[in-house]
Design goal:
InterPro entries: SLH_dom. It comes from Paenibacillus oryzisoli. This is SLH domain-containing protein. Keywords: Signal. It is a single chain. The longest helix is centred in the N-terminal third of the chain and has 32 residues, at about 1-35. The radius of gyration is 21 Å and the shape is globular. The chain has helices spanning about 1-35, 40-50, 70-80, 85-90, 105-115, 135-145, 155-160, 165-175, 180-190, 205-210, 215-220, 230-245. The protein has about 240 residues and is mainly α. Helix 6 packs parallel to helix 9 (about 180-190). It has 2 domains: about 1-35; about 40-245, no CATH class. The chain has 12 helices and no strands.
Length: about 240
């Protein structure tokens, strides 16, 4: 009987330890991603800045500031290497009456709309100065990753199944009362490490190898990218590793 009680006590302690670990993990995720937890993603902002995928303002990164819908669209184009293409596009205009050709984000919004990345709040209004929500930015990011079906109301679930975020992180982003540049940076940092839909390659690999929007040197220095090997055996190993992921 003593032995049985000893085992039961051990099992109980193990269960309590496991529950405590799960609770601590949840609390850490909540603290790191909650909008009221202060600025948490300066290191990620630094990494994105060195990759030339994120810029601050004349006052720094301003990670504690909220983001407008126009700013969200512009950030998305920079993140996916389309900013220069959009800026140089000829005859490109926004279809929305509240984003005329004179608006600073007209080309960004027009280009993003032409790629089916952004939708208006109506057929003719985009609401460029309205705050973008976490769900809306998740939907934009997922569409750019190839998930054309992404909509704000289902974005958190799709973000989890696509590997962009964990289920807990996606829920915290979706349920947050505000969406700041800090949370946007966190999503963007994960996005460059996420595989494009139907591909074995990440967004960062595409930006380096196809689009030449990020230098290989900067990508390697970030620790998020491994330059392709010219050794055939290494290439075979990498292909097998990708297939098993």
């Amino acid at each position: 009987m003593r032995g049985f009680l000893g085992k039961a006590s051990m099992v109980k302690k193990m269960a309590m330890t496991t529950a405590g670990t799960v609770l601590l993990s949840t609390l850490l995720v909540t603290t790191a991603w909650a909008a009221d937890a202060g600025v948490k993603h300066t290191a990620e902002a630094d990494s994105l800045n060195k990759l030339q995928l994120f810029q601050g303002t004349d006052r720094g990164y301003e990670l504690d500031q909220t983001l407008t819908r126009a700013q969200g669209a512009t950030m998305l184009l920079r993140l996916f290497g389309w900013e220069t293409t959009a800026a140089n596009a000829q005859g490109l205009s926004s279809p929305f009456t509240d984003v005329p050709a004179t608006h600073w984000a007209a080309k960004s919004v027009g280009f993003a709309f032409s790629k089916a990345l952004v939708h208006g709040v109506t057929d003719v209004y985009f609401a460029p100065d309205a705050s973008i929500t976490g769900e809306q930015f998740l939907a934009l990011t997922l569409r750019a990753l190839g998930y054309a079906e992404a909509e704000p109301q289902s974005a958190s679930e799709l973000a989890a199944t696509s590997g962009l975020l964990s289920a807990d992180e996606a829920q915290l982003i979706a349920q947050g009362a505000v969406f700041r540049r800090d949370e946007m940076v966190a999503v963007a940092y994960r996005a460059i490490q996420t595989k494009l839909k139907g591909s074995t390659r990440t967004l960062l690999q595409k930006l380096v190898e196809d689009d030449k929007a990020v230098s290989a040197e900067a990508a390697v220095a970030s620790g998020l990218y491994k330059a392709p090997s010219s050794d055939p055996m290494d290439q075979i190993e990498d292909a097998i590793r990708d297939a098993l992921k």
